[in-house]
Design brief:
alpha+beta; Arc Repressor Mutant, subunit A; 6 helices
Length: 114
């Protein structure tokens, strides 16, 4: 793995990436959308611990960052679908690695407690 120290005045790629995908909810939202189109209500059910206000805010942030597409249909009741952009799809392998890491930690802890 290539790790490079960043000089103070350089733009840090890790900081840049984390400014877009960092935080408690963003990776969970990206993971739940995956390669499917999801509506707001579906996401709320899939991530039940997120507040409605926070979900709205994070969807807006991810859309503005170019990670999500937002498609609004002109019908009543209003219908809005979210999907990953090509940039957003690049994050899925990273999430897979994080998921594998978490699974290994859980298994290790379970084996230690057995």
């Amino acid at each position: 793995m290539k790790i490079k120290n960043i000089v103070k005045d350089e733009i840090c790629p890790v900081s840049t990436a984390l400014s877009i995908i960092g935080g408690k909810w963003r990776l969970q939202i990206i993971f739940q959308i995956g390669m499917e189109k999801r509506r707001f209500g579906e996401l709320k059910r899939l991530i039940p611990t997120i507040s409605e206000k926070m979900l709205i805010q994070e969807l807006k942030n991810l859309t503005q960052a170019g990670i999500l597409n937002r498609k609004a249909y002109k019908e009543i009741p209003p219908k809005v679908e979210y999907s990953l952009t090509l940039e957003g799809q690049k994050i899925l392998p990273i999430i897979d690695q994080i998921q594998d890491f978490g699974t290994e930690l859980i298994e290790k802890r379970n084996n230690e407690n057995s």
